[in-house]
Amino acid sequence: MHRNSLLNRELRFFFGEKWYWGPVVDGVLLKKNILAARNSLSAAEREFKSGKILSTLLSLDEITSVDTVFVYINFRSEVHTKRLITTLLRLGKRIVVPVTLVPERRLLAVAINDLDQDCVPGFCSIPEPRPELRENQQVAGRDIEAILLPGSVFDERCGRWGYGGGYYDRFLTNEAPLSTRIGLAFDLQIVRLLSLRPHDQLLDMIVTEKRVLQRG
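Below the sequence we write its predicted structure tokens.
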């Protein structure tokens, strides 16, 4: 697409409880505004909304009917997952969490039994499985039945933008192409339509505190 077309493109986005039409330069403005809105949620609001998302997830066949679930560990203002992980472990699920391998630019999937005891600060201080667990509790992508993943912006057709590193896109494509892909987001992160690049992966479902979006 020609550079001028990118500069002049308009996209509908949600910010501050309102919908806007505005220019998007390669998505930079949209992503900035959406993340600013997410960051503006109070801790109590994030906890409340995350609780509603947790309740919805626990009612979905895509979660209740499977044994092995990959779950990100929340960072900054993302949808909280620590209570979700504890709940799923208590229900007998095998829980797999990511290790970010920066030099290799990929994610390693590792099973844990206890979030607090099995994890230590890792990439960007995000909790990750201890080094010894990475050796003997790796889980192959083909054995992961459902993947719960974060993102910066999502759209109503289950498109997703991440944070720019491409880690999850590569993991979905190369490691776990057959797993059910479920994005967790606050509803303010949902827009009508994103301009996806070839490597941006579509999800099967997005769960927010207000609704469940499914790829049609």
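Residues 1-25 have pLDDT under 50 and may be disordered.
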